[in-house]
Amino acid sequence: MTALSGAHTVGRARCLFFRGRIYGETNINATFAAARRRTCPQAGGDGNLAPFDDRTPDAFDNAYYTNLVARRGLLHSDQELFNGGPQDALVRKYSGNGKIFAGDFAKAMVKMGGLMPAAGTPTEVRLNCRKVN
């Protein structure tokens, strides 16, 4: 799961999903939080976007993990990967070695792709991730 979370090295999140982190959490880099607050007010602006990785937002690299070590995770769930818990060592490893991250990410994606839903579980491939077909 730690490797798969690295997909957040690309993409953006809506203010609605990170507002609580930038205004209410203490395990966040103050400069990073201030920068995110400029585009995500305490009220309103729910649809305003911010990159998961503000250093290389459109590159698939290990900067996501470097950001976590620096307490610059955009989402609460991201920063939990590096917050004094059992995944800290792996996050540090990925932050220092992009090749190891890329290899582990590829293996995890293949493994996840082989998972099948339980028999009888209704499934659908969404044409637009934000809404049911």
Automatic annotation (TrEMBL):
Binds 2 calcium ions per subunit. Its cofactor is Ca(2+); heme b. It catalyses: 2 a phenolic donor + H2O2 = 2 a phenolic radical donor + 2 H2O. One of its GO terms (molecular function) is heme binding. It comes from the Eukaryota. Disulfide bonds join 15-40. Ca(2+) binds at residues 9, 53, 56, 61. Keywords: Calcium, Disulfide bond, Heme, Hydrogen peroxide, Iron, Metal-binding, Oxidoreductase, Peroxidase, Pyrrolidone carboxylic acid. One of its GO terms (biological process) is response to oxidative stress. Heme b binds at residue 8. PANTHER family: PEROXIDASE (PTHR31388:SF23), PEROXIDASE 72-RELATED (PTHR31388). Belongs to the peroxidase family. This is Plant heme peroxidase family profile domain-containing protein. It comes from Aegilops tauschii subsp. strangulata (Goatgrass). The lineage of its organism: Eukaryota, Viridiplantae, Streptophyta, Embryophyta, Tracheophyta.
